[in-house]
Task: structure prediction
Amino acid sequence: MQFTVETTPAYAEVNGSGRLNMVAAPLLREVVAAVVAEGSHHVVVNMEGTEFMDSSGLGALIGCLKIARQAGGDLRIANVQPQVKMVLELTSMHRVLTPYESVEAAFSNE
Result:
């Protein structure tokens, strides 16, 4: 899984495509940690291209959320695909990581 980052004045958007599993999870953590260290404390993970997520991927998202919040910001997810949404709902993590319809909607009220 490859990740790209696009920075706007309001937030940084992290894009990834493929499978968010035990192989890709550490890389996501590294990318988000670097983004936050560079000063973007509001992060949106665009999951439009993420077709699969396992427990390692979920753990990575929670770890990324913690990184952002410890820096005084927040992490949100957008464009969640059906399998990923199912994992979030089965684990009740959709209450912590609320899926947004679009990247723009994630921080639209900020």
Q: What stands out?
A: The radius of gyration is 12 Å. Strands lie at 2-7, 12-20, 42-53, 74-78, 99-100.
